[in-house]
Design brief:
Alpha-Beta Plaits, 2 domains, 5-stranded antiparallel β-sheet, 5 helices, 18% strand
């Protein structure tokens, strides 16, 4: 009888070790490795879907109204010129897009104005023109505005805040 009990304990221990943490997770009501992997796959698929939709929207936007938009990162546009073409003198702006041709920037500015966000055109060294919105002198206000703008359907990826005082 003692050998049978010892065999049962040994076999149970081996089975427990072979099954790994999933046994304990199941006992605790937590997701198993398979559940976690399935969730990772679902998240990856959703991110790919969102990226594809964003790319399609960007392509459609460029084809419809701004065919020669230039993808310019914040690092590439280091110093704004002193003159803002629409006369704005605020410290902070949300930069939605940057264009190599001012005409395309004006088209984009018009589209944004139709959505209720009058934009400011900003000239940069190198001939680039950026479209900025929500001009303010309050740093916390511009950060809140950025959060709100990112929720809008027209907001492109890579929007950023420019501080005109930092050159």
């Amino acid at each position: 009888m003692r050998n049978v009990l010892l065999n049962i304990v040994v076999l149970s221990s081996v089975a427990l070790l072979a099954s790994g943490c999933d046994f304990f997770r199941t006992l605790a009501g937590r997701p198993t490795s398979a559940d976690i992997e399935a969730k990772r796959q679902a998240i990856r698929i959703e991110e790919e879907r969102k990226a594809a939709l964003a790319a399609a929207d960007t392509i459609a936007m460029q084809k419809d109204s701004v065919p020669e938009a230039v993808a310019v990162t914040q690092e590439e546009v280091k110093e704004p010129s002193k003159a803002f073409s629409s006369g704005g003198k605020k410290r902070f702006y949300i930069v939605l897009a940057t264009f190599s041709k001012e005409e395309n920037a004006r088209k984009f500015q018009s589209r944004i104005a139709d959505k209720g966000y009058p934009g400011e055109l900003m000239g940069f060294k190198g001939g680039y023109t950026a479209v900025g919105i929500c001009g303010t002198d309050d740093e916390s206000e511009i950060k809140e505005s950025l959060k709100e703008i990112k929720r809008q359907d027209f907001c492109p990826e890579g929007v950023w805040i420019i501080d005109r005082n930092k050159r």
